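Sorry to interrupt, but I need a hand with the structure work. Can you supply me with one protein entry, sequence and fold together? No commentary is needed, just the two lines. Leave the record below and I will have a look.
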Amino acid sequence: MQESIKRGKVLEGQMVISGGPGTGKTTILIQRINFLISDTVKEYRVDLSPKDINELRNRDRSWIFFSPSELLKEYLMNLLAKEMLSPDDDRVTVWKQKKGNLFREMSL
């Protein structure tokens, strides 16, 4: 099931991953990010255009983790760094601190 989540819905809308504590949600999300920005995605989805590939690899827009707390944010930053995903405060952020700006940016 995790492989289908990792490789599913490439540029085909949103995906919701839910589950209880310890079920692997964070792990599969990190694996998915690695898959989507890797060359492997081109082998899996040969129909992707160069524009699609650029969209997936656009660091400013391709992924963001929202954390409910500063403690979980630090944990996520460490996990992402171990996977060489170069996390920073723009990529991993606390929801409460970011939501006001995000709502304004998206006119919500």
Observations:
- Helices lie at 2-7, 25-37, 40-44, 50-57, 70-82, 95-105.
